[in-house]
Amino acid sequence: MNTTALDKALQEIVKKREELAKIDYNNPKYDDLEEQLHDLEDAFQDEYGDFLEDALQTVHDEYCPDNDVLMPIAYLGQGVPVEVDKLPGKDTRLVLSPAPTRIILALGKDKQQVVWTVDKK
Question: Whole-model pTM above 0.85?
Answer without folding.
Answer: yes
